[in-house]
Amino acid sequence: MPRPTAHAVRSMVQTHTDNSIGDILAKRHLDADRDRWRQRLRDVTTRDVEAVLATRPGSYRLDKLLALVSPAAEACLEEMARQSQTLTRQRFGRTIKLYAPLYLSSFCVNRCRYCGFNVENRFERTRLTIDEALADAERIAREGFRDILLVSSEDRTFITSDYLAELAARLRERFSFIGIEIYQMSAGEYRRLFEAGIEGVTLYQETYDRQEYARQHPGGPKADYDLRLRGPDDMAQAGMREIGLGVLLGLADWRIETLALGEHASYLIRRYWRSHVSFSFPRLRPACGVPRDEFPHLLTDRNLVQMMLALRLCFADAGLVLSTREAAPFRDHVVALGPTRISAGSRTNPGGYSQADRGEGQFEVSDRRSPREVADMLARHGLEPVWKDWDRAFLDTNRP
Q1: Which spans does this entry mark as compositional bias, Basic and acidic residues (predicted)?
Q2: pTM confidence score
């Protein structure tokens, strides 16, 4: 089979209209029939990667991202790391934002095969009342955090928009930034939460591969691939300042998932310039009722580093988020190369900050160091840990 010319590849990845992200992914064959992309990735040579690295870093093209996530680029990781570090310093300085997740509920109606909160798992589930959530939040604040992420499974009957709006209103005095990572909501619900003080939403597509998405989501509201894909549009239209994207790394080929992520981010940046896009990199972790041997696409540390560097070199201003899913030695190694926000001292069981052994966690935390220990690690790398995002006065003058 003859190798396609560079012009043919570029035509394939650049000829498009600005339709919905679903249309774009379908036209690119990034949501199905991925064999053609595997061939494109195999066709990239080291010389192709070096040509990309000789251009100015920070701007996105799909063919550029294709080269940077290819197997051939593994020989160029040192140069990619050097450019990523330089670009990150230029755009973000030496600061790294610190945040803590606050889990609110482990009740769920979904049957996601990779999640410890799967409705079919049998364990003692937990919900936090507003007062219990505030008690955990107070412990997080005492550690120094002013950036908090509210996390919940799909528990709409308890974690309602009323609940979240009331909690956010009571947290605003203690936290300069409140984000959420919960079930998908409507644009109207996101708007209400934004007005209550929630500034950012992270919603993982989990995988952009339709067939694998259907296999991993056999039941529950989350099983609708197309509805899930529209979530970030609804967040942006509601005015959210931060939109977090990501896939659950391990469900499908990470190289092709990164290409789909790049297309999704580019689409959002073109349409919603007021919102800031960030990427998270959750790798599958051991969890209640989740056998890891069912996931053939687990990626190595080296793969994860390549993915982060490739996205940084294509998206100069995007946030890169690294959580405590990753082990301490790995986080120490990569923290200076591109991440802009990391979690610390995390508990993934609702109420876990007040009662460490309360209920089951969503997954096992890997980096178990205290927030202070993580901050000290950053300082040893010449980085400045930032506990607070933006000032309250800025929020009040820019809120509708």
Answers
A1: 357-367
A2: 0.91
